[in-house]
Amino acid sequence: MKNYIPVRGGKGKFSFLLDRRSIIFSLFFLLLTFILILFSIGIGDFFIAPIDVLKVLLGMGAPEHNLVVQTFRLPRVLTAMLVGACLAVSGAILQGMVRNPLASPDLLGITGGASVAAVAFITVFPAASIRWLPVSALLGAGLVIVLIYFLAWKQGVSTMRLVLIGVGIHSCMSALTTLLLVVSPVYLTSKAMVWLAGSVYGTNWNDVLTLLPWALVFIPLAVLLGRSINVQQLGDDVAQGVGHHVERQRAVLLLVCVALAGAVVAIGGAIGFVALLAPQIARKLVGPSFGALLPMAALIGSFIVVAGDLIARTALSPLDLPVGIFTSAIGAPFFMYLLYKYRNQ
Predict the structure, then answer these.
(1) Which of 12, 41, 104, 224 has its CA 20 to 30 A from that of 312?
(2) Residue 156: which pLDDT band, with cuts at 50, 70 and 90?
(3) Phi-psi region at 244: left, alpha or beta (left = phi > 0; alpha = psi -120 to 50)
(4) 8 A C-beta contact, residue 273 and residue 326
(5) How high is the pLDDT of residue 170?
(6) Cα–Cα distance between 263 and 212 in angstroms, integer?
(7) Is 306 in contact with 36 (CB distance < 8 Å)?
(8) Listed residue (310, 271, 131, 122) closest to 206, CA to CA
């Protein structure tokens, strides 16, 4: 019990334990992410020192700094943070629910469904308002998960059927996306390809305010459902034996996963491998308990996307590359490593 801090409510109404290691690593990544944000906001064609960025955030900055930070750079960094956190939590939920470290929304077809819907919106309805793009992406993700759940149902939904059907749906969604790109005019195809690469370029406060409610509602909800994921880790039979409503909880967890992944794809496009990478790192740092793993994964996901976006817009300046290129460059070798590591399981 030396590694845990007991927390008790007034008159014994509630009590729980906080893992010291989880607290330490969470505070460390929180500080690391904050420092990265200061540097990310300051670096660009117009350099702003981190201390001046901090002054702007505290409302004491110079007018010229206020304009650059608050209008152009801060919304982009905040969007990257929210995108990373939502993707990481979505991936952690799937990995825990299906008991497979290789599971993630982009590998099981959820992101693919959102991508097909978004590409169809861009290529089939080019005159439509871009404000409807997030709606189409969310609908695509929702329809795909309903299809996966329906096909996987056979007196309940087993995790193995869910994964296998999800991988198959992912392949179908990739084929449909490619078909739409091939048959579309060149100028629309290029526009869709930039979106598919995954980018937070050009995001503004409207994007932040669009994504923020999803993160504020569904990330805490995922943490509250962490105990349910822990129980499902024991297997369906054991979970049912201890009175756990497996199917109902699984449906709720899938809904949370789709809401987070769909909202991210709607704003930032198909940013790959963050949902796979962040939960794995979090598990190494704080262990398998989802009460600590989910917040840690959110912090790591935020750090990865903010760092990737900083590299994307500065590595080949003045070119501003999609952040998805860099997350995939890191994530693809890591995925191959995981395949090798778990090859006998």
Answers:
(1) 104
(2) low
(3) beta
(4) no
(5) 85
(6) 10
(7) yes
(8) 131
In DSSP terms, which residues pair with 19 in a beta bridge? 4
Q: Evaluate if residue 214 carries a pLDDT over 50.
A: yes
Token couple for 285:
């740092």
At 177, list the tokens.
């996306």
Mention every residue, 6+ apart, whose C-beta is less than 8 A from residue 301. 84, 85, 86, 87, 88, 89, 274, 275, 278
Give per-residue pLDDT as tens, 56-78: 888 887 888 888 888 889 999 99
Name the residue with tokens 């990265």: 36
Query: What secondary structure letter does DSSP report for 6?
Result: E
Indicate the burial class of 198 (C-beta count within 10 angstroms; 0-12, 13-18, 19 or more): buried
Residues in the chain: 345
Bridging pattern class, strands 4-8 and 15-19 = antiparallel
Instruction: Phi first, then psi: give them for residue 4, nearest 5 degrees.
Output: -125, 150
pLDDT band at 11 (very low <50, low <70, confident <90, very high): low
pLDDT digits (tens, 9 = 90+) for 158-179: 667 777 888 888 889 889 988 8
**DSSP assignment letter at 16:** E
What pLDDT does residue 219 have? 93
> Residue 124 in 3-state DSSP?
helix
Query: Angle 74-98/290-314 helices, nearest 10 degrees?
Result: 140
| Residue 81 pLDDT | 94
Encoding tokens for residue 153?
């149902």
Find all residues with CB under 8 Å of 223, minimum gap 6, and list them. Answer: 290, 291, 294, 295
**CA 164/CA 103 separation, integer angstroms:** 11
Phi-psi category of 44—alpha, beta or left, where left has phi over 0 and alpha has psi -120 to 50? left
Query: DSSP states of 72-122 as a string?
Result: IIHHHHHHHHHHHHHHHHHHHHHHHHHT-TT--TTTTTHHHHHHHHHHHHH
109 Cβ contact partners less than 8 Å away, ≥ 6 residues apart: 144, 148, 166, 167, 168, 169, 170, 172, 173
Hey, what are 32's tokens? Answer: 């690391």
Give the Cα separation of 4 and 20 in Å (integer): 5
Q: How far apart are CA 309 and CA 299, in angstroms?
A: 16
